[in-house]
Amino acid sequence: xxxxxxxxxxxxxxxxxxxxxxxxxxxxxxxxxxxxxxxxxxxxxxxxxxxxxxxxxxxxxxxxxxxxxxxxxxxxxxxxxxxxxxxxxxxxxxxxxxxxxxxxxxxxxxxxxxxxxxxxxxxxxxxxxxxxxxxxxxxxxxxxxxxxxxxxxxxxxxxxxxxxxxxxxxxxxxxxxxxxxxxxxxxxxxxxxxxxxxxxxxxxxxxxxxxxxxxxxxxxxxxxxxxxxxxxxxxxxxxxxxxxxxxxxxxxxxxxxxxxxxxxxxxxxxxxxxxxxxxxxxxxxxxxxx
Length: 290
What we know:
Blueprint: E1 4-15, H1 28-42, E2 53-57, H2 63-66, H3 72-83, E3 92-95, E4 117-127, H4 128-145, H5 150-160, E5 164-171, H6 172-185, H7 192-200, E6 206-208, E7 216-219, E8 222-227, H8 230-235, H9 245-268, E9 272-277, H10 284-289
Parallel strand pairs: 2-3, 8-9
Antiparallel strand pairs: 1-4, 1-5, 2-4, 6-7, 7-8
């Protein structure tokens, strides 16, 4: 008995500045064409291995839609792949849109349609012995050597109706590392551990407890953000005694804006956000744990 295991990957499309997908998802026929081109690109990694299936959703997702607890997009692709008829040969399952709609759970959210990076998710599945050899190779060099073929990039550009600057393959772990770097560049590095834990160890609790950042506790897909009035907030901020009341009020407003920014990011990554009012800063940690 040689059970099948899966590996999650991405075709990442970096759009030219100011560009957005004219079509968020490709029709069924075009998805099959794209899938065939992707299979040809990935063939060099499959050398020596037979019976490895490629399943993909021919739709462009924002990274926040992919990087959610339980990996819902990839999980759904893998589920649908299991429903497809078995074959002794490697299968290519291309999920496309019918009358403008993808299969349930695989429709890109229009709320996130304006991002400059689009991820097309795919799943490789095959016998455990073959996949156990293939996965380390993909993790080691897919990002470095995985530029999409010229035909694939051109086809994606034409069918999605958008100018593409770069098109490359990467593993889901590569995608996670990319987002770590992007978030650090825009001042969100302190928030990333909350997202990462929700992805890889959702049952374990984690704190964001680093003033002047807001106080947040996340566990099991729920993020609790502490709400304070101005006086209790001030008790958690060292070294502000010399500030004027006007300066403190402005800083408190910035703090509240940061809370909303963090809440929006966590919700985009699929976490449920709850704001918990903490009447006493000294007992805020206990309040969030209730």
